[in-house]
Amino acid sequence: MGNQRTFKRFQLVTTFPVMDPAGVKQLGVVIDISAEGLGVRVVEAMEPQRRYGLRVVLPEAIGGEHSVLLNTTCRWCRRSSNPDLFDAGFSLEEITPDIAELIEQLIQRFGR
Asked: Where are the alpha helices (DSSP H) in the chain?
């Protein structure tokens, strides 16, 4: 049962755009977040078990940064309640102390 979550997920009081690594194409929006991953509503299906670089645009600057590039692995993807969209779950890879602190700040400021 290696896919079970060990950290609580938090829904967000605002949406954070998710872009490709270069910050050019919007892929979707973050819908929930935890210390080990995030849920994203995307416009195109994502491939489970594939690694993705996701640039999350922050709703306000944190530590002087307006976005953060996260190395992730897609764990699952399924059609959303809106049939034109998909919901995908991503685990965070290579969580540095700075990324862990940023995720904690996002949860404290915008999680519910």
From this structure: 97-110
CATH number of 16-110: 2.40.10.220
Longest dimension (CA), the chain: 39
Three-state secondary structure call for residue 74:
strand
Give the burial string for 40-62 (b: 16+ CB within 10 Å, else e): bbbeeebeeeeebebbbbbbeee
Three-state SS for 54-111 is EEEEEEEEECCEEEEEEEEEEEEEEECCCCCCEEEEEEECCCCHHHHHHHHHHHHHHE
Query: What confidence score (pLDDT) does residue 1 get?
Result: 38
| Model pTM above 0.85 | yes
Rounded Cα distance, 102 and 68, in Å: 9
